[in-house]
Amino acid sequence: MLDSFFKISERGSTVGREIRGGFVTFFTMAYIVALNPLILGGAKDSTGHYLGGGTDGANFAAIAAMTALMAGLLTILMGAVANFPLALATGLGLNTFVAVGIASKMTWADAMGLVVVEGIIITILVLTGFRTAVFKAVPQQLKIAISVGIGLFITLIGLVDAGFVRKTPGTGPVPVTLGFDGTLVGWPIIVFGFGLVLMIILMVRKVKGAILIGIVASTLLSIVIEKAFKIGENYLPGGVVNNVFGGKLPDTYKGETIRDAAGNAIVYTNPKGWGLNVPTVPDSIVSTPDFSLFGKFDVFGAFQFEGVTIIAAVLFVFTLLLSDFFDTVGTITAIGTEAGLIDKDGNVPNNNKILFVDSVAAVAGGAGSISSNTSYIESASGVGEGARTGLASIVTGILFLMTTFLAPLVKVIPYEAATPALVIVGFLMMSQIKDIDWSDYGIGIPAFLSIILMPFTYNISVGIGVGIISHVLIRLVQGRSKEIHYLLYIVSALFIIYFLQSPINMWVS
């Protein structure tokens, strides 16, 4: 019954592969349950209130519980309705924009109301066929470039989250560096290297479950290391010594100090610490979930001219809409290509259903007060493990639902144990680059720009936007305007507006 419903055999998979793939996807993106509360919970709205709390702090437990609940329900919906190996959760980047760019201008309820409005609009675009039409209008080879660019992007995410690549301290000419100040230090980096090497060895030896085995083994190693050496986190909340510690470091400080030009200590860090979760065995693995944030949104509040103009509110919605719209297009293309589910025109099966579930996720995220939910490129790690159907998504979704009660257990997995999977998947996605016709400038240059800008700007939508705009421009210069789908003119115009938001905002204000 499972085989026929999910077409497991038809897609060259097995139930075992789907289950393993579901587990790997969950382990690779479970960090969002811990990270989303830090992002949303660290920001105040225009009234000085934190999300789900008062003026003294956010309700972190409620944010974590709703993050896990929505991820679970929406990922199961994706698997059951669209039969696609794609997981959903609160979108990184989108949540930062909501916390910093929107909530600071209005109340949290109004900000989440804008997210709901964006979700409703994008759902309408799906139901009218516009979103699907845009997806099909993008040339096949540009879709391949988008997939390759996302592969490089998630590789960089893996390297950055593991601490293998970091921002250069201070304001030096080099934007990023190897490890901390040009060197690899600390046990967490060793755990990352161990996991990466182990996955490579297992893949070369064609061992089933290579990625999953690597994550589990690295997590166990990290628990042992933390127990033995008491490493701790690699940062402290606040981080600015002058503000938090009055310019004096606490006696317990064991990390490094970044100083300004005058020699004053400005940042308190522990570069040898764990990236997000400290891998310690919790006293209790069960917690009671708090779903009190559900329904705490106001659809019309942001449009009542209190704090922001209606034009500014519309621009906020437009920014969310464009980012959500094209990030998902890129993610679906990348996952479908890696899974071998793309047809000759670059389209995936059940495309309309996939886009519909993704659009509903935006509405659900706003309704749950946890920011827009969207498709996760980390799903590629599950595909790399063999996932090809929606059964893997259902497995991932069930694990997220369990997380609402088992949140302490999720925090055992450090970044350094999960991120090697992203590097491996990035390698797998790079193989498609050979199918791009680099001799055709109308394809080669846009493909090149898409590929490099996604990791260099840390933004999928930027890569897609520049790729589409340059494709249209070059085809016009070549006198081949008949090859340009009319929708790409519209998309190019929208992206130009998107890139010019700052001067537009200045003009409006």
UniProtKB/TrEMBL annotation:
Signal peptide as annotated in the record: none
Subcellular location, principal: membrane
Subcellular location: Endomembrane system
UniProt keywords, alphabetically: Membrane, Transmembrane, Transmembrane helix, Transport
Membrane-traversing stretches: 21-40, 60-79, 86-105, 111-130, 142-165, 185-204, 211-229, 299-322, 391-410, 445-474, 486-504
One Pfam match: Xan_ur_permease
Any one GO molecular-function label of the UniProt entry: purine nucleobase transmembrane transporter activity
Entry GO CC: endomembrane system; plasma membrane
InterPro entries: Azg-like (IPR045018), NCS2 (IPR006043)
Record has Transport as a keyword: yes
Membrane topology note: Multi-pass membrane protein
Family affiliation: Belongs to the nucleobase:cation symporter-2 (NCS2) (TC 2.A.40) family. Azg-like subfamily.
PANTHER family in alphabetical order: XANTHINE/URACIL PERMEASE C887.17-RELATED (PTHR43337), XANTHINE_URACIL PERMEASE C887.17-RELATED (PTHR43337:SF1)
This protein's name: Unannotated protein
Organism annotation: freshwater metagenome
Lineage of the organism: unclassified sequences, metagenomes, ecological metagenomes
